[in-house]
Specification:
about 375 residues, Rossmann fold, nine-stranded mixed sheet, two-stranded antiparallel sheet, 16 helices, about 45% helix, globular
Length: about 375
Amino acid sequence: MDIISYVLGSSRTFSELPFNEVDSLVLAQFSYAKLEAVDQAAGRRWRSGARIKDYYMAEYFDRVFCDAITDDENIRLLAALSASRRFRDVVIRDITALSSSERSMQFAAMIFDIDSNTSVAAFRGTDGSLVGWKEDFLLSFQDEIPSQIEAAAYLDRHFGGWGGLRGRRLYVTGHSKGGNLAVYAACMCSREVRKSIEAVYSMDGPGFSSSAGEVIEKVIAESGLNVIRINPELSLVGMLLRNYGERRVVRNYASGIIMQHSAYSWEVKEDSFDYIEEQDWKSQYLDRTISKWLEEATDEERERVVETLFDTLDANGLKSVADLIGMSHTDVLNLIRELNKADEGTKEVITGILKSFAVSAVSSIRQ
């Protein structure tokens, strides 16, 4: 079954069945819902939090579910959560959403109080904005991205010092980029907060640059953080960059890299995932190919390509995935012409990287 079927079949409360890894994916996926839009549109703030079922208001769906990615599934998930005895009275608090094209940052997080002494901090993955997608690309050449800084500060603000949730048992989770933020925040927050963390879940989240990865690995080893990486059979995002520790591979009923990345295709078995022993061979091949490609391209080359691509998209008025999907054939051709106007050095880099990727692919498949 998928996570929606799991939620609909969850009749036991958290006092009857403790928080588990499937719950972690459910809440990580639900954090994609832009609940901040409900607060803003309704002209109110629930300072002490509001229950999941309080957000089930169809008049705001067009603002809450507007990524053009998994909107229909996310609406169904909210309906299931609102009906579920296990989830409907879970309190959501401290919803934060920040976006800045100047900083190339898309950050969002929310906290779920699952009982009187336990909270789950969920970091949103990449939404439908191109700012968010650009920030993902920054991971390929920056040791630290803006959202990672915000994520660590978010945990400290709410669970450390004078935070209102200080001393509570804490789980940290996220899907895709949210998984990367969860691991980074748990490792870079204060020691006080880190001691309260029961587990960190990275649901097909990408890794880190080599230097940042070394720091992350050291903190995990020295602090004994319980970091759990879970990938689908065919994983691309979760295999990118330098990763850490062992990973678990969950069975997946979808075909293709993009569809398997979606949390809605992960196989659930009762109150855990249906695991398999090895990653799909295609995923292993892609991992070798992309890793070799990233090793051969310098940070300067990666940065130049990323800036050229996203500057061109911005100049053409493209701000979201929905804008890209809505492009006509003529629009696509015009965009390609714009990219061809890049300076010779950048075009040379792009050509070189593409050739390098092709050579890497041939080399990898021979292995």
